[in-house]
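Technical note accompanying the year-one report. For the benefit of new consortium partners, we illustrate the data format agreed upon in the data management plan: each record pairs a sequence with a structure-token string. No post-processing was applied to the example shown here.
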Amino acid sequence: MIVTLTPNPSVDRTVTLSGDLVRGAVLRADSVTAQSGGKGVNISRAAVAANVRTIAVLPAEKDDPFVVELLRDGIDCRPEPPAGPVRVNLTLTEPDGTTTKINTPGAEVGAADLDRLAAAVIDRAGQARWVVLAGSLPPGAPDGWYAELVAALRGSGASVAVDTSGAPLVALAAGLEQHAPSLMKPNGEELASLTGGDADAIEADPHAAAKAAQVLVDRGVEGVLATLGGSGAVLVTAQGAWHAVPPPTTVVSTVGAGDSSLFGYLLGDLRNASAEDRLRLAVAYGSAAASLPGTTIPTPAHIRADLVEVRSLHQTTASPVRTTSHTEN
């Protein structure tokens, strides 16, 4: 089972533009959609679609339309009393797949709000194979809150994955020797911010990405899944480093692609797959998400893991590894 925590959820509103985004102009939209979202919520959506048991913990009123939608979609949602209404994030998508996001901050929280969320996650962690702490922190939350929660989950028996950015990511990285999660999922820019590398070079060169990720593994993280946009993804563990190349993909929207990649990795782990196959599923899920409109989360029917090429970065002359995807039990 996967327990997800989304401490700063959002209603994700996507405007699909009929032409290019032009600042100051009057633009036309082909469509407008809205969906209950947030990084952890997106992972729980993918889990439900793949018939994997999941519990989504988040702050919202039990009768909020946000929660009603999740329950309608089959997501086991455990809302905790919120500090305020769920925020609204806006995504503008252009015909060539270029995505512009406008994220609002969310309601300001206090210590009691955070304590309720932490208790809800810790109470359920004993049932889980993975606990995922995902997304931004709401205003009022200390930057180190995720780090504290990782430490609190240490005795639960669950593996902990963290996908965040900015100050919470920096705070987590500052104390890896004391509270390293099982998995971190930075993108190229986030990985560069933690290791002092060049973001463009890391995203373009899998060897540079692996070298940067190795810094985090050396400090105690069991695995680093670095998503590199069109360059695929790199996985680094104490056992090795691998790079996966996505299949040719027509990008429609990149929203939710990173969340889908993380779920693909977790799904592979739930299947007891090898490191290569966990990475293969991660890239298959991420590329499938990028090919879908708005915040659409891929289902197993969208996944072509057999088209993802994986190679060991410690054996650069080896031919790419390609296998057929597993069937979910």
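Partners are asked to follow this layout when depositing records. The longest strand covers residues 29-37.
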